[in-house]
Amino acid sequence: MPGITREEVAHLARLARLELKDEELDHFAGQLDDIIGAVARVSEVADQDVPPTSHPLPLTNVMRADEIRPSLTPQEALSGAPAQEQQRFKVPQILGED
Amino acid sequence: MTAELIKLTAAEIAAKIASGEVTAVQVTEAHLARIEAVDEKVNAFLHVDREGALAQARAVDDKRARGEKLGPLAGVPLALKDIFTTKGIPTTVGSKILEGWIPPYDATLTQRLKAADVVILGKTNMDEFAMGSSTENSAYGPTGNPWDLTKIPGGSGGGSSAALAAYEAPLAIGTDTGGSIRQPAAVTGTVGVKPTYGAVSRYGMVAFSSSLDQGGPCARTVLDAALLHEAIAGHDPLDSTSIDAPVPPVVEAARNGDVKGMRIGIVKQFRGEGYQAGVLQRFDESVELLKELGAEVVEVDCPSFDLALAAYYLIAPSECSSNLARFDAMRYGLRVGDDGTKSAEDVTALTREAGFGDEVKRRVILGTYALSSGYYDAYYGSAQKVRTLITRDFEKAFGEGGVDVLISPTTPTTAFPIGERADDPMAMYLADLCTIPTNLAGNAAMSLPCGLAPEDGMPVGLQIIAPAMADDRLYRVGAAVEAAFTARWGHPLLEEAPSL
């Protein structure tokens, strides 16, 4: 198994929306390399013909009746919003200038 | 009277309130006074809800005055892990990213506690997002182990276990994704149960790894844990992974502890390098005790358990990297860097950088890596195969092996000093070596005290593991072990803890 480089950690952090500082990249890269080295042991079973388990319960979709029920008021739903305007969540710009 | 009230079990408190010997308000005041006196040193609580607790207690006393029948835990104080939402009361999950957040709704578990007239004293400290084994990953400072305040109280639910061991509450709630109920119980000399996956609703429990997370009871006695288990378990239509089946008869089992004629398996894999001598000594004594009590003890081979830790540290980070995407600074929680010039994406990244601690960042990155194309099959895919193999090992032991329960030490070592493993993730992960297989397979397990390690005088936990939906077996065996040990010691183990 290949290890993980500082550049890869920086790329993964961007994908995960984490604006890491340079010293964090240095610090995490070494630690993550150790962790990946240890967990890579699971590949011992990669060639075995074993079905994967994603969940302990054999569940398929669980549906409920489509009924009108009490729910949060708009005020309650917005109570934790960092910013709000006209009963909506107010967010920074999503699309670029062009 | 305060000193006497805080040492009582939950069952004793409920009986005294029901008979009128004490009022719920007196019991609550005694515990609030204890928190006031010791929690500056212990730091078990992130938030104490004095007014809310007293109001709940008064409601119980009023109910009794009206002649209404009280439930089995009416008026009993409880410490709630800060991962469950509480309407109008802060919920931080031990993270800066939710500092100051006041949930607009109660978790199902919170509602059930209120419906059972349990008095919620406050919210307890935890590793951030339940990621850790020491509570050092809390953004709000570490919690001390009441046996030795320089040592860790376990994690992630170290606030809950410490609150019990410090007599700040007779009951507490934890959540167990890889051992976060059982390992804190083991290192503080208390009792903790991870119920069968799906037994306790996850609605309103902040998600870490959804296929592994399970809420459960923490207490100082097996019977108290059973009473709390019965109060919080049961089907919830708001959680699609909630089991729609009757709760196993856990209280009845706890009242009838007996191992005579039972076949008990020792997991061969949970021994050897990395295990502290005093832990193994107390475990071996527990095995002898079980034999004396009439159980047949056999060794069981679970070869896939050797890969459990590796599989867990791929599956849990993978699920967490997905679950924690919801902390995007848009709808609730912290928002950093929104100065009118930055995009939403930049604000999200700046907020997560400022709001998440190191362990959360490590796991989010690890999960993102394990799920990325090119690595998915080798890592996440293989980990899921290991999960199947572990489940098969359990099925074989409980099936053709004819074993009723499995036993092992709960943790390889006793509580370690605060700071010792704080920046050594792999060393920290080893604390969950014996507890993780149960989370991966979804069955049930308990930790209860089995003595002190001679070399450091710190508590050792005995783990009991049962098949899924046979949680009552944990309580039947646990109650028998607890009664025999208490008789041998002449008192509950916690009596040996130094006074704070």
Automatic annotation (TrEMBL), chain A:
<comment type="subunit">
    <text>Heterotrimer of A, B and C subunits.</text>
</comment>
<keyword id="KW-0547">Nucleotide-binding</keyword>
<keyword id="KW-0436">Ligase</keyword>
<comment type="similarity">
    <text>Belongs to the GatC family.</text>
</comment>
<comment type="function">
    <text>Allows the formation of correctly charged Asn-tRNA(Asn) or Gln-tRNA(Gln) through the transamidation of misacylated Asp-tRNA(Asn) or Glu-tRNA(Gln) in organisms which lack either or both of asparaginyl-tRNA or glutaminyl-tRNA synthetases. The reaction takes place in the presence of glutamine and ATP through an activated phospho-Asp-tRNA(Asn) or phospho-Glu-tRNA(Gln).</text>
</comment>
<feature type="region of interest" description="Disordered">
    <location>
        <begin position="75"/>
        <end position="98"/>
    </location>
</feature>
<keyword id="KW-0648">Protein biosynthesis</keyword>
<protein>
    <recommendedName>
        <fullName>Aspartyl/glutamyl-tRNA(Asn/Gln) amidotransferase subunit C</fullName>
        <ecNumber>6.3.5.-</ecNumber>
    </recommendedName>
</protein>
<dbReference type="Pfam" id="PF02686">
    <property type="entry name" value="GatC"/>
</dbReference>
<dbReference type="InterPro" id="IPR036113">
    <property type="entry name" value="Asp/Glu-ADT_sf_sub_c"/>
</dbReference>
<dbReference type="InterPro" id="IPR003837">
    <property type="entry name" value="GatC"/>
</dbReference>
<keyword id="KW-0067">ATP-binding</keyword>
